[in-house]
Q: What sequence folds into this?
């Protein structure tokens, strides 16, 4: 509890000291969000994918979804991501350069403590849903290529649902079996030895 309170006091103090930089960062974040939304609206209105926003849900297919996701990501990176990286990168560099050496060292020491704390509490990340979706698209593109370009409205929803569950099943088979083997090996080679040594 004391560590949490000291951490809170540390950041409250730093935010009061550098409130101008905080205001600039918040304003930059708001502008970036508005810009990202405007780019999305613009892309929808001009893109042939989705017929400039006039296509019905049933007219969409996996090919459109993948193409739309790739193109909107590229446009967002070009119009929002790159300018944001330049703005925040340059802003951070100028702000850091103006800090006194004692304060820089204070931040570095705090960062070392946080890294050690993150290593102890690390529990893995997300991304499983994205991997399953990529696998779902690959399943239709490779196994049943005709359905990759088929509109969603031309097949019953149970078909799309059953192939989704089938993809999840293969996902767990392909990744789950090697993961289980690795866990068994690690258990017998490391974890069990540690428990025996401690006992």
A:
């Amino acid at each position: 509890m004391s560590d949490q309170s000291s951490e809170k006091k540390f950041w409250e103090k730093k935010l009061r000291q550098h409130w101008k930089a905080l205001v600039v960062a918040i304003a930059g974040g708001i502008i970036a969000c508005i810009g990202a939304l405007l780019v999305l609206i613009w892309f929808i209105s001009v893109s042939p994918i989705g017929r400039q926003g006039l296509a019905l849900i049933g007219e969409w297919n996996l090919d459109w979804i993948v193409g739309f996701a790739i193109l909107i990501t590229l446009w967002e990176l070009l119009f929002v991501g790159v300018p944001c990286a330049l703005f925040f990168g340059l802003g951070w560099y100028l702000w850091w350069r103006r800090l006194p050496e004692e304060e820089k060292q204070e931040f570095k020491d705090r960062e070392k403590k946080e890294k050690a704390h993150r290593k102890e509490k690390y529990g893995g990340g997300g991304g499983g849903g994205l991997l399953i979706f990529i696998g779902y698209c690959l399943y239709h593109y490779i196994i049943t290529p005709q359905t990759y370009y088929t509109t969603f409205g031309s097949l019953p929803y149970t078909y799309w649902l059953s192939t989704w569950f089938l993809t999840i099943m293969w996902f767990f088979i392909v990744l789950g079996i090697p993961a289980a083997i690795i866990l068994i090996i690690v258990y017998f080679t490391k974890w069990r030895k540690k428990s025996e040594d401690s006992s």
Summary: The chain has a mean pLDDT of 84.
